[in-house]
Amino acid sequence: MGGYTGQANLTLSQGVRMMFYVLYPNETSFKTVDEVPDYVDKATAYFIVMLILEMLISSFWKGRPLRINDGLTSLSAGVISRLPDVAFRGVEVTTYIYMWNNFRMIELPWDSPWTWWLTFLGVDFGYYWFHRMTHEVNIMWAGHQTHHSSEDYNLTTALRQSVLQKYFSWMFYWPMAFFIPPSVFAVHLQFNLLYQFWIHTELINNLGPLELVLNTPSHHRVHHGRNPYCIDSNYAGTLIIWDRMFGTFVPEKDKVVYGLTHPINTFEPFSVQLQHLIYIWNTFWSTPGFSNKLSVIFKGPGWGPGKPRLGLPEELPKVTGDEKPYNPKASLALQIYSSIHFILLLAIYQHMFEAKQMLSSIMILARIVYILLMLTSLGFLLENRQVVNLLPCSCFI
User: What proportion of the chain, given as a percentage, has pLDDT over 90?
Assistant: First the structure.
């Protein structure tokens, strides 16, 4: 089995601070990767609590209830993105360890606060460039577009992750492997991801002076917008300073309309994950000339023959602010039914992670297949498709 195996228990204070990247070096320094806890897995309870709080505040204070269909689609994508981690250590850490073992030039001390803070900056810098390239290289956008496909902006959107994206990110962290121990890298890779959860909300407006340094909900709302002024901006993970340094920072101005410039209009999880990859495949074969075919893969999503690398901004669809999200009618009973089934499915998913050391490979594979079938069925239900076979939720519990 792969993944993180460290069993460090977190106090409530540490758990809360973990979500905002304010744990200290002496709390999160480990000699080996195997000692590093699976912080993302331990964050599940905090995800749920924060989701519920946002949902209640948004419904009863702001008068904007969560759209069940979009929210469950985002949560389903989050579940799918984590399924490979049941059996395998993440490709980012695995390749990093390989580089460290074979090519490191110096070895910084794993228990030094200086190493901890240097890694904090290094991981965030690497993430900026990785994130930027996912928007500027079409094949990488095929993974990242999943995260942008939600037409809502709330904490469920943070969990709408791609199962493909992690297979492009590893190369952006390799230079750190020449001198920073893998255990320190593995800690910050997780914290950088966790920090980005809470910034996916419309409930927080402006954070004053912190807006100058940190990536905030305001900055990240712009990043998720399909308004022309929002495109290709604010790639930060934790620190917004990289966008300010490299000319990609854009402040929040007009009302942000969320989602892809060409909405996918589906809640079916495989389409959410793979639709742009299929588009690239079809475009590759229909585009004449070998050089143009390569450009389809490695230039921007908006590129076409005769256009600049990132396409023409004037060809972006107009945004009026009156756009309506894809929202097939669903009865209250159907929404409750779908939510209950997803909660039961989540219990199966969580138990699979907790018991992965005791489950056989066949049982893990069976649960993964079951989860995928069930999520697909829920996606069909939320779209009001007529033909759908729901498996009973108890068959693999």
Answer: 83
Q: Tell whether 114 and 224 lie within a shared domain.
A: yes
pLDDT of residue 390: 46
**Is the same domain home to 241 and 93?**
yes
Residue 353 lies in a domain: yes
Q: Is residue 205 part of a domain?
A: yes
Instruction: Identify the pLDDT of residue 85.
Output: 82
Residue 318 in any domain: the answer is no
- The range of the structural domain enclosing residue 339 comes to 333-382
Which residue shows structure tokens 């994508």?
77
Q: What is the total count of domains within the chain?
A: 2
> Of 217, 246, 275, which marks where a domain is finished?
246
311: left (phi over 0), alpha (psi -120 to 50) or beta: left
Q: pLDDT grade, residue 393 (50/70/90)? A: very low
Is 299 contained in some domain?
A: no
Tokens matching residue 202:
């419309």
Domain shared by 238 and 363, yes or no: no
- pLDDT by residue (tens digit) across 30-71? 999 999 999 998 999 999 999 999 999 999 887 788 999 999
Domain boundary among 201, 216, 246: 246
Q: pTM for the whole thing? A: 0.92
Task: Inform me whether the pLDDT recorded for 98 exceeds 80.
Answer: yes
Q: In this predicted model, what pLDDT tens digit does every residue of 264-297 receive, in sequence order? A: 999 999 999 999 999 999 999 999 999 999 999 9
pLDDT at site 322:
87
